[in-house]
Design goal:
disordered N terminus, alpha/beta, four-stranded parallel beta sheet, single chain, two-stranded parallel ribbon
């Protein structure tokens, strides 16, 4: 789905206000439009809207390709059992990632509230504006190192589509799971079936 920037702003407002019913209604309207235009499947191309994925998938006239499934599969392929989740505040605080990964035998560790605030600030005031700062990368890597030391994480889910702008696999000794790349590959696989 490729909504306009005005619609994206509305999505963000609805997500942040936890207005799930309105978010589902707006997204379902878009899905109906896509189906009417001949689309055979669709995807929510950001992590946070997956907070309503189950409900939306049940209403959608076309199949939805989840970002969570390929992330879960990638972690299983690495045989990892405990991973950290970085993303927007909502993505880190809501249960859609932990619930999905728990069903695959994977434990999700999220940063402490103060660390969540740091990551949220970096995402909203820098990365979403196309700004990448080395000191912000250092802060995120410090958070990852803290989670590794205290919780024994084996990998890190980059659960915000902007996080790959600031972190690449060469920056970290742990496995980084780039949700953008994993989701794109899943969409391409579906497309060329």
């Amino acid at each position: 789905m490729t909504p306009t920037s005005k619609t994206c702003g509305l999505f963000n407002v609805l997500e942040e206000a936890n207005q799930s019913e309105q978010l589902i209604s707006l997204l379902n309207c878009s899905l109906n439009n896509l189906a009417a235009a001949g689309a055979e499947y669709a995807a929510l191309t950001a992590n946070t809207p997956h907070m309503v994925f189950k409900e939306l998938a049940a209403l959608s006239p076309i199949p939805l390709i989840s970002i969570l499934d390929p992330v879960c599969q990638a972690i299983q392929l690495k045989r990892q059992k405990r991973v950290a989740l970085l993303g927007t505040k909502m993505t880190m605080e809501l249960s859609f990632y932990p619930d999905k990964l728990a069903s695959c035998g994977i434990e999700v560790i999220v940063p402490e509230p103060s660390q969540i605030a740091v990551i949220q600030e970096i995402i909203t005031t820098e990365l979403e504006q196309g700004i990448v700062k080395s000191q912000s990368k250092k802060k995120i890597l410090e958070i990852i190192n803290h989670l590794s030391k205290h919780f024994g994480i084996e990998g890190v889910i980059l659960g915000c589509t902007e996080l790959p702008l600031i972190l690449q696999q060469t920056d970290c000794r742990l496995t980084l799971y780039d949700t953008v790349e994993l989701h794109t590959n899943a969409l391409l696989t579906e497309m060329f079936k």
